[in-house]
Amino acid sequence: MLIIGERINASRKRIAPAVENKDAGFIIQEAGMQIEAGADYVDANAGTFGPEREPGLLCWLVETIQGSHECRISLDSPNPAAIEPALKLHKGKALINSISLETARFDSLLPLVRDHGTDVIAMCADDQGMPTDLENKLRIAGTLVEKLTAAGVPLENIYVDPLVYPISTDHSYGTVVLQAIERIMTGFPGVHTSIGLSNVSYGLPFRFQLNQMFMVLAMGRGLDAAILDPTDKRLMANVITASALLGRDEFCMKYLEAHQGGKLDLE
Questions:
Q1: Residue of 196, 91, 190, 93 lying closest to 148 (CA atoms)
Q2: Any idea what DSSP says for residue 188?
Q3: How far apart are CA 75 and CA 18, in angstroms?
Q4: pTM above 0.85, yes or no
């Protein structure tokens, strides 16, 4: 299960001033907490500062995080002017978050994904918008996979995001995404699926409960990556446990390691 730590996002109240003031100590600590908790990628987002300031700040985040931690970074921006210089600074294989079928975004980001050999989150959105129904999610997912692979992007580098919407606005949104995950994973063997987990619970109380349960349900449908808060210990314990139960943890080695490290005993 690929975990993308979501916490270093300038839209968060505690992160915005740390990015603006280039508080390296705070950012390094935030990244370290997520890596220690099990993040495979640390998401970095400076998008709230606008197109003029974002490139410099995203580059600063990459240098600051990788200057203190051996980790890969999810470059969270639709802006190629921000992503391209950050890719040149990034050590190892980066993740671009995200491309879509929106013409301008696809055409500008595709060369960066292809030429730098990055992983990429491919959102089920196009020039008509972000569909909420299963049929159109699958239509866009199929077209994204076809266009990316035709351009030379390896299937294993693609993480299709069927887009999770709050179930507080429509009770069917959760089940539609679960169906989409299953159909995408079976329809394109070798591709990956990813979701922004916390979107499902927006507007409801006890969000952590909904997030934890939806994550397990999604994993049962084949989900193999998610953007989430890895410092949620119960959530991560559920991910580790579900991985073992779904046969994704050979000889339950990661489960046993988590038990020995006290990551499952949360009483």
A1: 190
A2: S
A3: 18
A4: yes
